[in-house]
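Q: Here's a chain of 376 amino acids. Please give me its 3D structure as tokens.
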Amino acid sequence: MKFLLFFVFLTIAQALVHVPLIRRKSLRKTLQEHGGLREGLSPQHDLYSKYVPEDEVAMGEPLLNYMDNEYFGQISIGSPPQEFFVVFDTGSANLWVPSASCSSTACSNHNKFNPHLSSTFQSTHETVSISYGTGSMMGLLVYDTVQVGSIVTRKQGLILSETESIFLYYSHFDGILGLGYPSLSVSGTMPVFDNMWSEGLIPQDIFSVYLSRGNGSMVVFGGIDDSLYTGGLHWVPVTHERFWQISIDSISLGDQVFACEDGCQAIIDTGTSVIAGHTEAVRGIQEAIGAKADIYGLYHVTCSDISSLPDVIITINGMKYPVPPTAYISQFSGSCTSGFQVTSGPWILGDIFIREYFVAFDRSRNRVGFAEAVRS
């Protein structure tokens, strides 16, 4: 079971108090108003061409950045194609989008797949459910054509959700495309990335992720774009081929170690917006940065104190990776919220960490590479 912590946790805490449950403006309309739909995802767009390697052997998929908390790109499913916005999630392994027959409120404001409009659709009678740390869905396993950028996989297994928890109503994406190992797939179907490789659609069994605070975020399938990072990549072996799980040496603030003094395990998870860890260690970090809990369990700091807070140092395979307070404190509507949360499993290094460090995911050698991300 994947522990998924989207920023929507904060949004829900605010929305349940301040906003009645009404149909909000569609994602498509919102992105059109901000110039982020189609233009931002077109191969002819400057953001796309800037980050695609010149030899064009690898394929760059642009990601839209919603408030530095959700990153999602456009894919299409079926023949003719039906378009969806999905999170490219290294912490899960299934692709799912809402079904046209989904009756949940969470589906009401998202794009939904209509199987009757696709000539390549193949149904099954298998029901699949997925539970995340902050939501769940249940649906039907089906097969159809899936296109990511210029890459088209045939007979791709995916799930069409029939029911979704209300949490997903507040997401600004339609579904999730998992990039974890096949052993993580709840339905036993081959993940999209594995099909890309097995069908010879990408030149290398590797993908890489660049998350920006502004425009220009990208997933590169089939290679690494060295224009997205500075210095060299430092490689770390995967310790458990299910999640993209690695060993951490320690987590410290200044000279004081707050977690993993004797080493621990961590998951590199693009589908989680925060850094999550064990209760006692996270509590110690919150106290050290002066964060206080509100009635919803969210921790806040005084905004004027951010510049004086220490870096959080995550040491991996002997290399120190500083995470500054400007990265782990989120500022929104005059409130400054800590980006550390609690999980009972391995530590999770989510988008807070990945915005600072470009990450390459190498399936051919079962390793993860880190380098300092280019600042946008």
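Q: Can you summarize the key feature?
A: The domain at 228-373 is CATH 2.40.70.10 (Cathepsin D, subunit A; domain 1).
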